[in-house]
Amino acid sequence: MDRLNAAHARSGLSLRRFAHALGTDASRFSAYRSGKIAPSAAFLLRAERIADAISRARESRIPTSIDAVLSIGAAHNKGDDDWTYALSLELRDRLRDILRNSMELAEAWEAQPPDIEAHWKALAAAFVSREFHEAGLPAPKWTQGPRLASEWILDTPRLSDDQIKEQTPRWLAERNIFIAEKDLVTA
């Protein structure tokens, strides 16, 4: 399990965070690392690929899905929804730039980010999925599925909830997230 240990070390993440990034829990990951359980070849290759991409992204000072979602979660925990939304838009814009100019770092966005408040994680997943789709790439597995159980309408001054819903792109509405198109535009 030297290769798995080396991948973990290259990622620069804690054992728990790297395990989560790979879609498993810390105890199973520890069992893989100790050799008690043999990981599949696909899991090992994915761990190496993601660790390498995270390492390259950090060397290039480019955020990963983990970094971006942690920032959004921290802003939400401070109770500043305007700043949280601004960081969500920045996540989208930074990812768009990465997919246009540093495609080799897209794999750093395959890492499953930590759990944060459901609304904000669903929005991050929607943005990431959309950007990958626009770049002609399959969306990371973690972005598939987060659909909110109830409607989440981001307030827009001078628009009613019905108007916001009418002006929401379908790819967001499908996830039960409603944001007026004009509020998705950044400079």
N-to-C series of helices and strands: HHHHHHHEHHE
Query: Main sheet?
Result: 2 strands, parallel
Overall pLDDT, averaged?
93
| Total beta strand runs | 2
**Helical content band:** 55-70%
Placed side by side, the strands forming the largest sheet appear as: 1-2
Basic shape:
elongated
Count of helix runs: 9
- Secondary-structure content class: mainly alpha
> Approximately what portion of the residues adopt beta-strand conformation?
under 5%
What ranges have pLDDT less than 50 throughout 5 or more consecutive residues? none
Terminus-to-terminus distance: 47 Å
Overall radius of gyration: 18 Å
Please explain how this structure is put together:
- By secondary structure, the protein is an all-alpha fold.
- It is 57% helix and 2% strand.
- It contains nine helices and two strands, in the order αααααααβααβ.
- It has helices at residues 2-11, 15-21, 26-34, 41-59, 65-77, 81-101, 118-134, 161-166, 170-173; strands spanning 152-153, 177-178.
- A two-stranded parallel sheet has the order 1-2.
- Helix 6 (81-101) runs parallel beside helix 7.
- The longest helix is centred in the middle third of the chain and has 21 residues, at 81-101.
- The radius of gyration is 18 Å and the shape is elongated.
- The model has no long low-confidence stretch (mean pLDDT 93).
List the SSEs and their pairings.
Blueprint: H1 2-11, H2 15-21, H3 26-34, H4 41-59, H5 65-77, H6 81-101, H7 118-134, E1 152-153, H8 161-166, H9 170-173, E2 177-178
Parallel strand pairs: 1-2
Helix pairs in contact: 1-4, 2-3, 5-6, 6-7
